[in-house]
Amino acid sequence: MLLLWEIYYSFFKIGLISFGGGYAMLPLMRQEFIGGDWLSLCEFLDILAVAEMTPGPVSINMSTFVGFQMAGCLGAAIATIGVLSPSVLLLLLIFFLSKWFIGSRWTRAAMRGIRPAVIALIALAAIFIGEQVLNEITALFIFLVCLALSLKTCLNPIIIVLIAASFSIFINIL
Amino acid sequence: MKPFPSSLRELMNTLTCLGQLFFLFFKIGAFTFGGGYVMLPIIEREIVEKREWIERDKFLDILALAQSVPGALAVNTSFQVGYRLYGIKGALTAVLGAALPSFIIILLIALYFFEYRNHPLAEYAFMGILPSVVALITAAAWRMGEKTIGDWKGMAICGFLLLPGYFLDWNPFFLLLAGALGGIFMYHREEAEAGSDE
Predict the structure, then answer these.
(1) Residue at B54 is within a domain
(2) pLDDT in tens, A90-120
(3) Could you say which DSSP state residue A34 is in?
(4) Residue A60: which of B31, B99, B134 has the nearest Cβ?
(5) What is the three-class DSSP state of B35?
(6) With left for phi above 0 and alpha for psi between -120 and 50, is residue A35 left, alpha or beta?
(7) What number is the ipTM of this complex?
(8) Does residue B161 have a pLDDT over 80?
(9) Could you give the CA distance from residue A52 to residue A26 in angstroms, rounded to a whole number?
(10) How many helices (H) and strands (E) does chain B have?
(11) Domain count for chain B
(12) What stretch of H or E contains A134?
């Protein structure tokens, strides 16, 4: 019971900072789960890769998977509800207070500061994961090619991931 | 808000409407790979163009709000679409529909994942997948930066926050709070001139 409450609380916090989609929450997920006895770094990276390759929002995929690792199916459900709760509650709150909240110049100014902060969070996620993963020349090559594909073409992300996977299988088997 | 359905027929009507809403978002959740920015055009096509449930400029409002609260873009959008159509029950139905496919798919994968993780083919595949994921995250940061950082102030906030975030491992909440305070400090005058307090 206590574990489930802990899972809910952790994922509520994670949901609360996930501005701009799933990537901004990765730094907090790392701080919350890795290093404790819940999740190893390798498992975290594996889960991220799976979350990226399956349909649906990365944040929900990550939460379901990590929750499952921690406490089975029930844990997965609690984690997913936890990560969804802040958005749902905030949106409801905003619908009731709408005019005052959205229109206020203080809110607008704060949002203009939060957006660059979110980008810093996403960049931190890229740096932290990149440090773990980009440790050899092949990985670096795949990274650069995928980055170029992602920025210069409008290929669906899943296609880019699949290209990278098949390339890696191909050169390792040869 | 409607009163409690007075007849069986009305109840059936409500259930049919909610069912349609649920299955639409279930379908979108189940078949769109690649996260929120891939989903949005599909949601727009289904809701605005095909079914004409919501007008285009209303949909743009929905998008703006979806991007200014935390959470997955697809979830925030589906919540608001459901809310506009049928109130709170619509909102919860739509969110459930959007979230359930990922939940089920991940659960199935999680049950079997670690059995196959150490197979050599999986090992090779992950050696390629992880760098590509880093590339996708980097590209997301880059693209969002291009879109939302409009001036040197935004760049300064982002740049300054990277330092404590990286070297001191600050809690992301502090980073967001610092960003919000920085935004209020640097932009409140500009925002006061730009628009009236509504």
Answers:
(1) yes
(2) 998 888 776 566 667 888 888 888 889 989 9
(3) B
(4) B99
(5) coil
(6) left
(7) 0.86
(8) yes
(9) 13
(10) 7, 0
(11) 1
(12) none
In a domain? residue B196? no
Is A17 in contact with B70 (Cβ distance < 8 A)?
yes
SS3 state of residue A39? strand
Provide the residue count of chain A. 174
| Residue bearing tokens 């509504």 | B198
Chain A interface disruption, residue of B27, B38, B130, most A CBs within 10 A: B130
Among A39, A23, A125, A101, which Cα is nearest to B198's? A101
Q: B43-87 pLDDT, tens per residue?
A: 888 888 888 888 888 888 888 788 778 888 889 999 999 999 999
Q: What three-state secondary structure class fits A1? A: coil
Which of A 74-113 lie inside 8 A of B, CB atoms? 76-77, 80, 83-84, 86-88, 90-92, 94-95, 99, 102-106, 108-113
Amino acid at B69: V
Provide the pLDDT confidence category of residue B134 given band limits of 50, 70 and 90: very high
Which of B31, B102, B198 to substitute to test the interface with A, most A CBs within 10 Å? B102
Q: How confident is the model at residue A124 (pLDDT cuts 50, 70, 90)?
A: very high
Contacts of B165 in chain A (CB under 8 A): 27, 120-121, 124
Chain B interface, best mutation among A45, A60, A129, A137, by max B CB count within 10 A: A60
Residue B34: partners with Cβ closer than 8 Å, 6 or more residues away: A156, A157, A158
Its pTM stands at 0.83
Show the tokens assigned to B94: 């739509």
Q: Which domain holds residue B50?
A: 1-115
pLDDT at B198 over 50: no
- At how many degrees (to 10) do helices B172-194 and A2-17 cross? 40
Helices (H), A2-136: 2-17, 26-33, 41-53, 58-103, 105-133
Position B59 in a domain: yes
φ/ψ (deg, to 5) at A39: -150, 135
Say if the Cβ atoms of B127 and A116 lie within 8 Å: no
- Structural domain contains residue B40: yes
Strands (DSSP E) along chain B, which ranges? none
